[in-house]
């Protein structure tokens, strides 16, 4: 794997996999077919982990009559309104705790082919539209609703799409042979931000924004709307790996390394980890 592929946002693997096909007119239908097939695989995995979790929690309830288990992770709706819960789960309206990550990736995979096409034509416009959508959704708290329980998706695809597109366009930018001309500035900013983040967590400066009377999903440490602190953290960390060859070489592993093998089988690893997490 080349160093320039380490700009590790969601969307990087998409750019690495399909960048060579973007300029071949007959390849667009191939890309759509591959990505929609992947989205369907993710959907199957999502349903499997969801109903495996339900089986585990209902089994514990039947064995020990522990009603607390029916109040955890949105499981209770299947006990009180099973048909409605089943239908809303199929349509992502109802998502169990710790089983609410794959819906985000399914939505991203479904629209990824069109994003790839636009990135080939107008990367700047794509980034501008993506960033605008990210800001508007964060500022006005716009996200797909959950139902029948009122609320929003835990991971808002309208916000997280910006990280996805940022990774995709960055990968295509580097794959086209272009170079980052502000590497020293980027390294200083990234290292400084990561150091600030370390101190912030270490010394528990969480109340600083409260003193300033700042409150917004874009500023708070919010996961649903991908707040700026989270976004800047992954940009800073990825930038250091991108700009510092020694740092990259320090963590680089061969294709036969167990971690690399796990990465090539990320979906089974994710599903297995989710099921084991429910046992915890």
From TrEMBL:
It comes from the Bacteria. PANTHER family: BLL4819 PROTEIN. InterPro entries: UCP028704_OpgC. The chain crosses the membrane at residues 44-64, 100-118, 125-142, 154-174, 186-205, 225-247, 259-279. This is OpgC protein. The keyword Membrane applies. The keyword Nucleotide-binding does not apply. Keywords: Membrane, Transmembrane, Transmembrane helix.
């Amino acid at each position: 794997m080349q160093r320039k592929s380490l700009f590790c946002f969601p969307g990087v693997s998409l750019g690495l996999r399909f960048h060579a096909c973007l300029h071949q007119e007959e390849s667009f239908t191939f890309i759509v077919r591959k990505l929609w097939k992947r989205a369907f695989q993710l959907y199957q995995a999502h349903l499997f982990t969801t109903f495996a979790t339900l089986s585990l929690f209902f089994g514990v309830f039947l064995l020990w009559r522990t009603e607390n288990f029916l109040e955890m992770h949105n499981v209770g709706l299947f006990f009180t309104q099973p048909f409605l819960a089943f239908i809303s789960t199929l349509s992502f309206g109802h998502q169990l705790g710790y089983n609410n990550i794959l819906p985000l990736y399914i939505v991203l995979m479904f629209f990824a082919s069109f994003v790839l096409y636009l990135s080939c034509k107008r990367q700047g416009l794509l980034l501008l539209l993506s960033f605008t959508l990210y800001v508007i959704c964060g500022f006005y708290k716009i996200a797909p609703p959950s139902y029948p329980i009122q609320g929003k998706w835990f991971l808002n695809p309208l916000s997280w799409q910006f990280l996805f597109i940022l990774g995709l366009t960055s990968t295509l930018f580097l794959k086209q042979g272009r170079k980052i001309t502000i590497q020293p500035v980027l390294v200083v900013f990234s290292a400084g931000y990561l150091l600030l983040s370390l101190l912030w967590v270490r010394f528990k400066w969480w109340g600083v924004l409260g003193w300033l009377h700042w409150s917004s999903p874009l500023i708070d440490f919010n996961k649903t709307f991908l707040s700026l602190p989270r976004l800047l953290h992954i940009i800073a960390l990825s930038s250091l790996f991108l700009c510092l060859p020694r740092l990259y070489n320090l963590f680089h592993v061969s294709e036969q390394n167990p971690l690399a093998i796990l990465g090539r089988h990320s979906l089974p690893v994710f599903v297995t980890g989710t099921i084991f997490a429910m046992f915890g």
